[in-house]
Amino acid sequence: MILLPALRLLPAAAPARGARALRAGIGAMARVAALTLATAAVTALFGASAQAGQAAQSAHPASPPRVLRYSFPVAETGFDPAQVADLYSKTVVANIFEAPLAYDPLARPARLVPQTAAAMPEVSAEHTRFVVTLQPGIFFADDPAFGGRPRELIAADYVYAIKRHYDPRWKSPSLFLFENAGLLGLDALRAEALKPGGRFDYDRPVEGLRVLDRHRFEIRLARPAPRFLYTLADPSVSGAVAREVVERHGEAVMAHPVGTGPFRLSDWRRSSRIVLTRNPGFREQRWDAQPAADDAAGQALAARLRGRRLPMLDRVEISIIEEAQPRWLAFLNGELDLLDRLPAEFVPLALAGERLAPHLARQGIGLQRAPAVDTTFVYFNMDDPVVGGLAPAQVALRRAIGLAYDVAAEIALVRQGQAQPAQGLLPPGVSGHEPALRSEMSRYDPARAQALLDLYGWRDRDGDGWRERPDGQPLVLAFASQSDKTSRLIRELWKKRLDAVGLRVDFRIAQWPENLKASRAGKLMMWGVAWGAATPDGAYFLDLLYGPNAGEANMARFRLPAFDALQARIAVLPDGPERAALMHEAQRLAVAYLPYKASSHRINTALTRPGLIGYRPHPFASDFWRHVDREPDIPR
After folding, report:
1. pLDDT digits (tens, 9 = 90+) for 226-283
2. Band (2; pLDDT cuts 50, 70, 90)
3. Rounded distance, CA 324 to CA 342, Å?
4. Mean pLDDT over all residues of the chain?
5. Any residues with CB less than 8 A from the CB of 420 and at least 6 apart, and which?
6. Are 592 and 271 in contact (CB under 8 A)?
7. Distance (Å, rounded) from C-alpha 104 to C-alpha 126?
């Protein structure tokens, strides 16, 4: 799964308003530039990387390194495919590890291609048997666990990597992807490990996951899974892992990622800095993509890069910059090559309507805007005695909270128009999305919210202005959040709207990794995050509501037999009208019971510095670093 912080369709501004905004933006930028303390802080953040780059260039004056400088707005959690769930950790993992399949970087609609596989897998007519044949001669990056010997990728590595998700030791947040597909025998193996004193037996043969020979493995499923190949295209889930590395590093494996991919981790300062360098043992792989015939920009890019050996970059330097202003300043100062999530507060400075602002265009800065294929939402913990449960009073409370919140204000004031209101959990760009759907999800109706609360007993009984529970006990909503500016703005909006209907809210502030850990343990009442697509299949978003996924994808711990029955049928049907109709029915149950209050589907606005070549946002893949270049002779 892909979790990301809830941080974009932009209306064209009228010319006069656009000009005023631009003049105001330029003045604001000048004032910001005058803030010497902020600039000094940014310089300090990047000083070490700049010095390292200069040293490398002086050591190799004829061939300066090709370095991509990049930032994450939240801290990473680690780099183990069996343990990570957040977008940022998964992005790093996807550039170190490799799945058997990948996405063509330019094909739209998305198209799967072999990665470590020699060809597309052999698939039975019922989509219950998959045979993957690997390319020989692919090697893991060097690691002491290999005793100084080259270590070839073999079929057993994928079998081991998939089994790790079933091992309770690793608490895999992606286990649901395999459990829902029904790999034969793996659930029983996990059940044995969950018994008192039990351990996971990696060496026990199971029918659903077998090594056929050195370079071939087989997956057998209990039921049809027509879209299972998507799971084999996500390196942050199905990336090959060497057993020797895990056994050597044990619980510290999150800090010791060793894969077959184009990069390897060379420096990590938790929540501060991540550096990846070219894997010197990476096999010969050439840039290749098949853009659509009518994609002029894609065709031009393909003509320029086709045949280049991958990766083109020597180094990727990632800084964790949680606040928007220093991230924006770092980009303006040339210390970042890519700002792929333009902070909303700087949209008036960066854009004039839907175009790049002239002062940035004159610097050669590039603009790319694309749907993020995600949904921002607040979830309610259905195990919580206050907001959870399926009783009418609890359903009324959740619906009232949803109606009390002003999604349009969030999009306008916090996101600066860089999003569209969500009518359900399924975003545009995935199967099952309903463009014509209009639902309560996006409705702001405080009067109706108050009527629902009154009707179901959530009233102010003591006259202090705050509502109590139906049994008279105090009512306080506990809302988890982070300390960054966007989170602060969203908190202020939530508080204002909930105050207006007499609902008291207490915000619990923690860092992103801490909230994620608490969420997985079921300790949060409410939390606002986003769910990003990892495949073109909209059922990936319905997994948020599937009962057996509780504690994994199903953060809300929603359990409704009628929904689970629908999702089980959706999983086995081929794409088509029957499946789409069931997905629509499932989405309406989600709106009615409201375990998730969906808010928006964002637009990703990305800015690039001169010299960055090949960046093209992909709706589902995050391993883009292997496909881009940064020309070292072009100043930042």
Report:
1. 999 999 999 999 999 999 999 999 999 999 999 999 999 999 999 999 999 999 999 9
2. low
3. 9
4. 91
5. 9, 411, 600, 601, 603
6. no
7. 26
Q: Convert the pLDDT of each residue in 567-583 to its tens digit.
A: 999 999 999 999 999 99
Residues 34 and 28: their CA atoms lie apart, in Å, by 10
The dihedral region occupied by 611, where left means phi > 0, alpha psi between -120 and 50, and beta the remainder, is left
Question: What angle do the packed helices 324-332 and 15-33 form, to 10 degrees?
Answer: 90
For a pLDDT cut of 90, what percent of the chain falls above it? 88
Q: Is the pLDDT of residue 387 over 50?
A: yes
Q: pLDDT by residue (tens digit) across 113-151?
A: 999 999 999 999 999 999 999 999 999 999 999 999 999
**Angstrom distance (rounded) from CA 365 to CA 369:** 13
The pairs formed by 543-550 with CB atoms below 8 angstroms and a separation of 24 or more are: 543/1, 543/176, 543/180, 543/567, 544/425, 544/596, 545/425, 545/586, 545/589, 545/590, 545/595, 545/596, 546/176, 546/180, 548/176, 548/179, 548/180, 549/176, 549/180
Half-sphere exposure of 292 (CA within 13 A, CB side): 7
Q: What percent of the chain has pLDDT over 70?
A: 90
Cis status of the peptide bond prior to 5, with omega within 30 of 0:
no
CA Rg, the chain, in Å?
Answer: 25
Q: How many CB atoms lie within 10 A of CB 370?
A: 15
Residues 6+ apart with CB under 8 A from 588: 439
Q: How many residues does the chain have?
A: 636
The token pair at 244 is 């020797």
Q: Which segments of 469-580 are extended strands (E)?
A: 476-481, 504-509, 526-532
Distance CA 49, CA 62 (A): 20
Cα–Cα distance measured from residue 627 to residue 622, given in angstroms and rounded to the nearest whole number: 11
Distance CA 425, CA 456 (A): 26
Rounded to 5°, the CA angle 428-398-371 comes to 15
Cα distance between residue 624 and residue 634, in whole Å: 21
Round to whole Å and give the CA distance between 412 and 408. 6
Q: Is the pLDDT of residue 56 over 70?
A: no
Query: Which DSSP letter does residue 344 get?
Result: G
CA distances (Å), 364 to each of 410, 607, 608, in order?
Answer: 32, 10, 9
Q: Rounded mean pLDDT of 84-100?
A: 96
φ/ψ of residue 168, rounded to 5: -60, -25
Q: What pLDDT, on the 0 to 100 scale, is given for residue 51? A: 40
Cis peptide before 100 (omega within 30 of 0): no
Instruction: Give the C-alpha separation, 531 to 230, whole Å.
Output: 17
Backbone angles phi, psi at 371, to 5 degrees: -60, 135
For the cut 50, the answer to whether the pLDDT of residue 625 exceeds it is yes
C-alpha distances out from residue 39 to 32, 36, 274, 342, Å: 9, 5, 21, 19
Bridge partner list, 103: 112
3-state SS class at 578:
helix
Token readout for 117 is 């596989």
Beta strand ranges found along 302-392 (DSSP E): 309-310, 315-320, 338-339, 351-352, 355-356, 366-371, 374-380
Q: What is the pLDDT of residue 169?
A: 97
Interacting residues of 28 by C-beta distance below 8 A, sequence separation 6+: 349
Confidence of residue 5 (pLDDT cuts 50, 70, 90): low
Query: Is residue 601 within 8 Å of residue 374, measured between CB atoms?
Result: yes
User: How far is the C-alpha of 284 from the C-alpha of 90, rounded, in Å?
Assistant: 24
